[in-house]
Design goal:
Blueprint: H1 3-12, H2 20-30, E1 38-41, H3 51-66, E2 70-75, H4 85-98, E3 106-108, H5 113-125, E4 129-132, H6 136-142, H7 160-172, E5 181-184, E6 199-203, E7 217-219, H8 221-232, E8 236-240, H9 247-255, E9 265-269, E10 272-274, H10 281-289, H11 304-310, H12 314-324, E11 331-333, H13 335-346, E12 352-353, E13 355-356, E14 359-364, E15 372-378, H14 384-387, E16 389-395, E17 397-401, E18 421-424, E19 429-437, E20 443-450, E21 468-469, E22 471-473, E23 478-485, E24 511-519, E25 531-534, E26 538-542, E27 551-557, H15 563-569
Parallel strand pairs: 1-2, 2-3, 8-9, 10-11, 12-25, 14-20, 18-21, 23-27
Antiparallel strand pairs: 4-5, 5-6, 6-7, 13-24, 14-17, 15-16, 17-22, 18-19, 19-20, 23-24, 25-26, 26-27
Helix pairs in contact: 3-12, 8-9, 12-13
The structure holds adenosine-5'-triphosphate and magnesium ion.
Amino acid sequence: MKEQDAKAGEASGREVGPNFVRAMVATDLQEGKHERPVTRFPPEPNGYLHIGHAKAICLGFGIAEDFGGRCHLRFDDTNPAKEDQTFVDSIQEDVRWLGFDWGEHLYFASSYFQQLYDYAEALIEAGKAYVDDLSEEQIQQYRGTVTKPGTPSPYRKRSVKENLDLFRRMRGGEFDDGSKVLRAKIDMSSSNMKMRDPLLYRIRRQHHHQTGDEWCIYPFYDFTHCLSDSIEGVTHSLCTLEFENNREIYDWVLDNLDVPQPQPRQTEFARLALTHTVMSKRKLLQLVNEGRVGGWDDPRMPTIAGMRRRGYRPEAIRTFCDKIGIARANSVVDKALLESTVRDDLNPDTPRVMAVLRPLKLVITNYPEGEEEHFDAPNLPDDPDRLGARSVPFSREIWIEASDFMEDPPKKFFRLAVGKEVRLRWAYLVTCTGFVKNDEGEVVEVHCTYDPDTRGGTPPDGRKVKGTIHWVSAQHAVDAMVRLYDHLFKVEHPDQDPEVSFLDELNEHSLEVVDGAKLEQSLGSAKVGARFQFERTGYFIVDPDSGPDGLVFNRIVALRDSWAKLVKKTGGN
Ligand code: ATP
Ligand code: MG
């Protein structure tokens, strides 16, 4: 067992042993059941991957890595009506971006259609499957309820010969869509509803993104999945808890066919759910299709593509998956844990810069007009040797954050107000002397004087100055658009109340576009994908929407550390 597993268990507090799946795999290998584990990640290509899938990916690929096995990427593509090549492509890109490699083991369930068909005939020949003419509704009615056993279909008694003939003609395209299905003949009174003669095949004339128009019958999940695992030599078939009741069918199909031994075994683990988020692909698709978000990669989306565009690094997502661990009971993880993981990931090596999001002009009235000087500002103040420094220009007119000035400040306000002295980060101490208002009564300019003896921000007489604010020289400033994000949903559990549509829980303030932010000069050459910490306001990434018209930044995550603490650590600068 790895140390990381033990830690994961502690962090979640819900762990059944130190990652029960890894423990199970280790035991199976020790007992000689398999030489090495083979796992798979089986997405249906009907949407983009989300953070929940990342959990499954980290588990499957992680086990393969830890035990010298392999993990397949298999598209579970049996429902062409909802699937699309763009999803096939995006899924591969996202798994790769997370840092995992399936090597040559890229598979499609659809490439097993012939084999699956042959297995279906074998089941029919063994008297264990039959063609049913009941309608969808009738099948529902005949199935019974949890408390009432089902009723056998009148077609259940068909002979092997008739079933085989009908199934072949289903495949041959002789029957209308939906007019017949192939069902397993198991037990209509089973206490597990899923075992009441589950459907194996349906007729559906639908073009398939991989097999074209070759097939007009398509196998269902319960028949396809176990056999695909078996065909690929999967040892451990890991899936989420909602498939628990399907395990019996999984085993039944394999037990009743002549498949290679040992058979794969299904094990379920808890789905990941996050606060302020929906994770169902159907709902995410709806958000995209209805234009409620900018697309699958909207930075507010819980999709891998969205998080990538938001500026999260794959390492952060993997660390997060380690932290939440693998449990056997569903629970909801606080999104704050993801955000703090992202912060911890960015903190050690993201350059610090100054950027003013909502600018207010500050005029240093005793600073000579037309003069400028430059300060060397370390890019990582905590570890100045690591990322070097850049030169920051200073002049008579600078931008400060509008919120750093108050006309009538409360007692504990340590930033600018008439008569108060603050430190301009890396530069000088300044004392506010006055301000100018426009006709609407808004403060449009603040005046101050600087103390030339405090160059670098340290007063020679050791006088205490509590506030330190960031700034950008007005004549050198780079204009930018900045996007700030809040939760996509205003409530923690947008899925919870069946009376309320999740769409009504959308947070109308989840995106705030700040046009006219002022950035320090060095950011003028920032490239798409570059990440920075804007001191005091958060971590930001240059968005691909940047162009000749200007830079666009996304806020990856806000800062949690209090500015005061940070300033203290960096020696009052
Ligand atoms: P949805 O129910 O929203 O359609 P899905 O689970 O059907 O999603 P799949 O493409 O079938 O999506 O999922 C592929 C794999 O990812 C499955 O093995 C599934 O168990 C796993 N998975 C999906 N969602 C989560 C989640 N929230 N947490 C952990 N694993 C997940
Ligand atoms: Mg699914």
